[in-house]
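User: Please fill in residues for this 155-position structure.
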């Protein structure tokens, strides 16, 4: 299960609350905003050491010109492995600072790459669960991924 349980404002706080994460059965964390600036969430593998939670950080910035697409495969691989953990019992919490742009973009890319969804279906699936708003640059990158995957599937 890809976890989208927090409201956008709570995302970074939930990511730093080990007790809440453990209570929710989270086994893996994908931080789409790793870093120590105001726009990032300052956690890393050391933060989760000893908790039993497997961590992966992506130092994405929520700007139109940031190339998050270079992390699509890495993020999808991590989510896929997390969900397969202990014969499908894994739960991955994908987050960023607000849960509005970066983390939904990576979840949408996962749905496209591993669940064979097109960009419209993947966006609708995530929007059905929560309010999201990937920035325009991220949306363009998802559209390019959609075009690439569509052409690969035709071959």
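Assistant: Residues filled in for all 155 positions:
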């Amino acid at each position: 299960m890809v976890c989208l349980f927090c409201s956008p404002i709570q995302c970074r706080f939930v990511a730093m609350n080990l007790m809440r994460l453990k209570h929710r059965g989270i086994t893996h964390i994908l931080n789409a905003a790793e870093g120590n600036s105001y726009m990032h969430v300052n956690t890393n593998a050391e933060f989760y050491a000893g908790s039993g939670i497997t961590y992966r950080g992506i130092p994405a910035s929520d700007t139109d010109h940031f190339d998050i697409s270079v992390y699509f495969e890495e993020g999808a691989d991590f989510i896929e492995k997390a969900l397969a953990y202990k014969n499908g019992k894994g739960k991955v919490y994908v987050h960023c600072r607000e849960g509005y742009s970066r983390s939904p973009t990576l979840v949408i890319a996962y749905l496209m790459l591993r669940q064979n969804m097109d960009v419209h279906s993947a966006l609708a699936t995530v929007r059905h669960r929560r309010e999201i708003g990937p920035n325009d640059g991220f949306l363009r990158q998802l559209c390019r991924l959609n075009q690439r995957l569509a052409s690969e599937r035709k071959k």
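For context: The chain has seven helices and four strands.
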